[in-house]
Amino acid sequence: MIAVPTPTQSRPETRVFRVEELLAHARAGRIRVPTFQRGFKWERADVGKLLDSIWRGYPIGTLLLWSKVGPAGQVMVGDLTFEVNEQNQAWFVVDGQQRIVSLVSTLLDRGSRADKFDFDFDLVTGNVVPSARRGEPATHLPLDRVIDSEELLAWVDDNRAALTPEQIRLAFRVGTALREYELPAYVVTIDDERVVREIFERTNSTGKSLDVSDVFNALHTPIDRQPAASLEDLVQRLRVRSLGEIDEDQLLRSLLAIEDRDLAGELQRQLVDVDIPAALERVERAMDRVFGFLAQDAGIPHLRLLPYQGPLTVLSAFFNTFPTPSTRARRLLTRWLWRGTATGELRGDGKDMRPALEAVRSGAGDEVTARGILATVSTRRPDIKPSEQFNLRYARSRLSVIALFDLRPHDLRTGEPIDVVSLLNGHDDIVPPIVTHRPASLSAAETAAFSSVGNRLLYSSHGEVSVLTMLVAAARAQAEFPSITTSIPPHVLASHAILAPAMQALYDDDLVAFVELRRDQIDGATARLVDRHAEWNHSDRLSIAALSHEEE
Description:
Blueprint: H1 7-10, E1 13-18, H2 19-27, E2 31-32, H3 44-56, E3 63-70, E4 73-77, E5 80-84, E6 87-95, H4 97-107, E7 119-122, E8 127-130, E9 140-142, H5 149-159, H6 165-180, E10 182-189, H7 193-206, H8 212-218, H9 231-239, H10 248-258, H11 267-270, H12 276-296, H13 311-321, H14 327-343, H15 354-360, H16 366-374, H17 395-406, H18 420-425, H19 444-450, H20 467-480, H21 490-494, H22 500-507, H23 511-534, H24 544-551
Helix pairs in contact: 2-4, 5-6, 9-12, 10-12, 10-13, 12-13, 14-16, 14-23, 15-16, 17-23, 20-22, 22-23
């Protein structure tokens, strides 16, 4: 029988680790992987998404570490081996192995490494990209050179002649972002390994992501917070996830879907035998995973930009059933979300999602289920209609803003990347108009252009100088002094879909041409964005692994 630890023994210590600190602890042998941990399961794409999430400042989950004495000898973390001394207080990874191994194996400077851990940062596109190893351009910054400031400086010095000043500044920002990114963690101190094994089994057999209440329950001690007692309470708890606010009606639909109830039925009758606190806990866990899927897989940075709310019902039911789906299953879900958005088949409040929910309830595996959900929308690419009047209540306008987000906008004043998530979490107009006073005597088509996304900027409107004034000044400087760096560098302008022809229009004082050119540029970017995620021409067939599983 397992001895019940006292609350003072088992209460987890809350800590925050910067990435550079975590890597230093790993090199010193303080980070260990227990023998009962599973092997490394992530694919290269998963590692890349983790690094991209850190660069963008997205949350990547909480670590759970077990504090105990670590013996001297060889310590393996992934495919790295360290010779270390005894540690009086080593940290054994209970939850977070895939993330820690990815960071250690990718970012620590060493010789050869497995392909899945070999990544660069493309200083031209601003993306984390797989390393080609041979024949790489000088603008590809190896990520194993960014954690050590001296190494990064040496790399910049070696490649300075091939880099622009903006690219050099970006290289240093990448280093700062990765070094100083903070990971929250719970550190548990307890002697009985059986209890830690129980925590591990609860985490990895159910796929649930741990939070402090899971840890306390696993250690048989009182939790430090009560579960959500109402939908209103759950809204407040989900708000801190940094992906925006979800309304109570949507959470109720998700609860009914997870509990396999009729979304169109009479509410009291549907909930008569439901354990509400337990159901709310399931909804919270499922929505956590949905938020991660939307941000990291589907390219939806915020709930304010989700074109239709209905898919949340299906996604919450799916991630409740499959907490840790395969990369292939997540990719099929991404196609479903974007294809159904492009065709308009996912519009509505979720009550028309019965075919997709039936796929979730089929009892099949994660990939087969995801393919069944995908089969509920058309595979034929529709014409992506040009944007019309801009209004964030419209799905088409939200797609345009996602396209603007995908350009990774930079601040027009400082040239620094905009913290778009913070901007979206605010209550201001996140896409204010550029031209606030239209020219007189406009045709109907010209008036429509000023009401389109071409006259909107993903930007904070605060400041003494208007955006239009800054842009006009930059256009004049660029035209009159082409050999001198303008007040707004071209890459910063391009991050807002403002290219040279549009700047020439501003110089010519042709505001109509400016907004029309920019509208067309954003429309093109939006169509490419939809096509990239919808993958219309890709095969939707099951993988060999899924087919083999079905045959068994």
